[in-house]
């Protein structure tokens, strides 16, 4: 699956190996001829390219992308690799204090547009770079074909007109001042480029939870129920598992009648803890024992969460420790039946389902917002770009395969004074450090690897900041900036469509969104978590996840007698398994919200007792009151007071690829009131499925270890 987006000509269906513009007829499965109209890609498409519209540019062009959403059931989160834009720049292409985005939601009958430069610094010999776009970054969006390519050229072509302000493709690169994508010197707070760029180096390993974790709760590893019907390799029954909720809750079995349709069926009869032995994880290499390969004692078990500073050069070495044949277990997750498996079987036409798709053993890592060479550090295998994933090790011995990615935490922009060099137009690049806030780290296989928890996040801190991560959880840190009050920094990685299992190894059922039985849509695959922790309300009440929503002989959601106790510690005898964030009364804090992958069921984040600015950013050139000066220079270079921002109490549109950073001036509100403040997905499905936790505002010290 990590090669699904690659332009290639070895596909089993011969027509898919042609250039889209070359296809006029195709032989159908019954021998008939299907006539196709001329393809929208009249030039530039290559054999094996996707059949979706191709966007084409020259290096140095400005690109204005306009997106329109018609009628559909779910929200769509749009993303474009290697390009960023200002959040509220739709009308005029620029809104200097609205924050940088690499993804944005488009709802029914809405339009969105942005203006962004394509400044390719490419090492590709062909000067061609392919940028992935997706109109729906969820797993079903990719599965259903809502993606395509923006192909950028560095050389003149006779089938693409040049823009008047860029008559010759500009190879915008002042190589003396750069080391790869990174400038050798970073501008300081006064705008002077005299400080050597900070090199922030990370070594990251991709491994199975079954290989690096333990199993202290003695949970069943493997297909104990003998369900079969999946294509994964077997797990190590003596290996470990990723635990999402360690409480041993028993769900009583019950036979109920759904009052809406009168159908009688049996639910329940299972017990926790909730876990996934098939999980895949990004982990810091230093956290693994060099002898056993296991996660060291005391290391928090959570998604990969990294921090870097504005203007840093970020170097990530990714190491693949996955087996060639990836393990998997059957579950109740579904995929849209769009891909035919057998058109002529005895059972009729069949399609591929979720249990017939094996997770890829090839791994990559894609980082949003940051500047990088699209042909080397995109982390995906896209179009004609060189392969950027790491293959599994051949055999059982020798070094683990690796590859390196390089990013710059800042903005690259042409100086606008091109000169001719060896017959080509060359321009200098100016660099500006950007305090981006949060961004997603996503896997190259966008269908199965996110279901297994392979995801992470990064937060870009202020220029010159220092920080100390908590030992209890690296999701929490204290950040110090010269001349400013230190603040608490929280990272919340939300994941959806996870493959959780009961203690006996059987898969956890989905919510009964479509009534009794397997859901009809992928967005109803309801395993959800924050930072590898889940606290489903049905689990807290001892109910079956697939219980009817209404009354059902005392076992439906409407039959819960004490729903008002849902978030109380008294209900379960302690804190929730999901994150409990600690801050002192009146202490400033930031919360980074990311959704690296999963289904398209939307989330609206709410934090009780607090409001925050929707756009807490200032442009490079702002006056003492925080207003952008005209011209304001580079937009949204730092988090700060923005007098033009409205204040909100809930953030909508948390979908796959979404990233938001919220800035709060005072924990406990303006009056710094101590207590526990609920944060949650305000939407029903996420709330019931465990997407909630607590902000604890207290002067008491934070516990040294997680519960």
Structural class by sheet pairing and helices: mainly beta
Unreliable residue stretches: none
Mean pLDDT: 90
Examine the secondary-structure arrangement and name the CATH architecture of the domain at 14-161.
Sandwich
Share of residues in strands: 25-35%
Percentage of helical residues? under 10%
Shape: globular
Could you name the CATH class of the domain at 14-161?
Answer: Mainly Beta
Could you name the CATH homologous superfamily of the domain at 14-161?
Cupredoxins -  blue copper proteins
- Rg for CA atoms: 25 Å
Give a structural overview.
By secondary structure, this protein is mostly beta strands. It has a domain at 14-161: Immunoglobulin-like. It contains five helices and 51 strands. The strands form 18 sheets. Strands 37, 38, 39, 40, 42 and 49 form a six-stranded mixed beta sheet that branches. It has a five-stranded mixed beta sheet with strand order 3-11-10-5-8, with no helix packed on it. It has a five-stranded mixed beta sheet with strand order 41-51-50-43-48. A hairpin with a 6-residue loop joins strand 20 (254-257) and strand 21 (264-267). The longest helix is centred in the N-terminal third of the chain and has 5 residues, at 139-143. The mean pLDDT is 90.
Key terms:
707 residues; mainly beta; Immunoglobulin-like; 6-stranded mixed sheet; 5-stranded mixed sheet; 3% helix
Show the helix and strand layout.
Elements: E1 25-27, E2 33-35, E3 55-58, E4 62-68, E5 76-80, E6 85-86, E7 100-101, E8 103-106, E9 111-117, E10 128-134, H1 139-143, E11 147-153, E12 170-172, E13 178-179, E14 182-183, E15 185-186, E16 195-196, E17 199-208, H2 209-212, E18 242-245, E19 250-251, E20 254-257, E21 264-267, E22 270-271, E23 274-276, E24 280-284, E25 304-309, E26 313-320, E27 340-345, E28 348-351, E29 366-367, E30 402-408, E31 410-414, E32 419-421, E33 424-427, E34 429-433, E35 437-442, E36 456-461, E37 466-469, E38 476-480, E39 487-498, E40 527-530, H3 537-540, H4 569-572, E41 580-583, E42 589-594, E43 603-607, E44 612-613, E45 617-618, E46 638-639, E47 647-648, E48 650-654, E49 659-664, E50 675-681, H5 684-688, E51 692-697
Parallel strand pairs: 3-11, 12-33, 17-26, 25-36, 39-42, 41-51
Antiparallel strand pairs: 1-2, 4-9, 5-8, 5-10, 6-7, 10-11, 13-14, 15-16, 17-24, 18-23, 19-22, 20-21, 26-30, 27-28, 29-35, 31-34, 32-33, 35-36, 37-38, 38-39, 39-40, 42-49, 43-48, 43-50, 44-47, 45-46, 50-51
